[in-house]
Amino acid sequence: MDQAEQAERKSGYPILGGWPLAPPILEEEVLSSWLVRAALRHSCTALALTGDLWPGWRYWCSDPDVSLSEERLSRLSVRSGISEQELRDTLLRLFIDGVRGESPGSPGCYPWILCLGSRNRRRAGGLQYCPNCFAEETPYYRRHSRLSWHTVCARHQTLLRDRCPHCEAPLCPHLLEPPASNLVRCHRCRRMLSEADALKGPRDAYCFQAFADRVLVEGHGLFGGQQLKTSEWFYLARWITGFLRSAAMHPTSHAQHFLRELGIDIGWLIPPASGLPLEMLPPYERAQQLSICWRILQAGPNRLENAVMSAGVPPSMFAPPQGCVPTLVDDLMKLLGEPRCRALPRPAIVVPRSPSSVLKMWHRLLRKIQR
Ligand SMILES: [Zn+2]
Ligand SMILES: [Zn+2]
Q1: Average predicted confidence (pLDDT) for the chain
Q2: Do 290 and 151 meet the contact criterion of CB atoms below 8 Å apart?
């Protein structure tokens, strides 16, 4: 911190270079949402505000809600007059660490955090909102707008949306410009995000969401009678959703048998249009996977173990996610047996791709070009 900033801090907010119109941080608001609202309040763009605050740092090209160095946090606190702790609480770091536990993470991609898919300042996704909440109160993005297990608005029980209902653009509030004064409009077509049909959210997806929130807060969660640490519970859920993704794309007789043992019809599984991981899927596709995951979790460890033993599902369909494998999942994976040897590669024969594979490529391309 330089001398000028120290003087600013001693003098107190909002004197000396502070933001005179900095809005208060709203309940559970993420940092990026508050920064955009602060910029629009001062009739400037979010890029101009952060460029002045942190010169030389391309803040909006990275994930703006994950973490902030102490130096940058201190500078932001001085300018805005908001305490460092209150600003720290807007970040997702605690959520990421809670869910991940001791596991090392891969940079740029965090389990259970929606992936922004950034290219420069443009994004392919990563944020979600409830149209009813946007219509009824100050529109802003809460922490759960970035969490992949959230698919239903707790207040309205409606499915969240991750795109503009008018032009299908992904949500990029940081690209809003004055005269926009709040976050209610789409950055691209300028129409109201609140003007959208509200679809009812699946009940089981909401049960999963509410339970996962509790696991995160309490530091542990029950699976049947077994108590799992937060990171173990999320790992188990991720392991199951990974299987559901494989089963949706390859509904083999073994996968059908496994799900039938747990009282689930494989017909309920709709393959993700893009085939992408959970953190990149739209809310309705995540809600569908998490609803079925909730049913499997409800079945408990004994029924899951019996289903694993009797169905003969190949281990490749239960690929372990990245991270430390909890004992419970490790034991279940041992029941699956050793992965089978791969057949020797055959000479390449050029054949047309299947229609489903072309469709997947098309949806991935759409996600990229709609940025
Ligand atoms: Zn709502
Ligand atoms: Zn739009």
Answers
A1: 87
A2: yes
Rounded to a whole number of angstroms, the CA Rg of the chain reads: 23
Q: Given pLDDT bands bounded at 50, 70 and 90, which one contains residue 208?
A: very high
CA of 220 to the centre of ligand 1 (A): 27
What distance in angstroms lies between residue 157's CA and the mean position of ligand 1's atoms? 7
Give the residue, 319 or 14, on which the prediction is more confident. 319
Cβ count within 10 A of residue 32: 24
How remote is the CA of residue 29 from the centroid of ligand 1, in Å? Answer: 15
Beta-carbon contacts of residue 106 (< 8 Å; ≥ 6 apart): 322
Token couple for 342: 């791969």
**C-alpha to C-alpha distance for 133 and 135, rounded to whole angstroms:** 5
Q: Which ligand is nearest to the CA of 190?
A: 2
Beta-carbon count within 10 A of 290 CB: 30
CA dist 311 to 91, 104, 264, 305, Å? Answer: 43, 32, 13, 10
- Ligand 2 centre to CA of 163 (Å) is 8
Residues having C-beta closer than 5 Å to ion ligand 1 = 130, 132-133, 153, 155-156
Q: Are 124 and 116 in contact (CB under 8 A)?
A: yes
Token pair recorded at residue 221: 């969660």
Query: How many other CB atoms sit within 10 Å of the CB of residue 208?
Result: 28
Is the Cβ–Cβ distance between 88 and 145 less than 8 Å? no
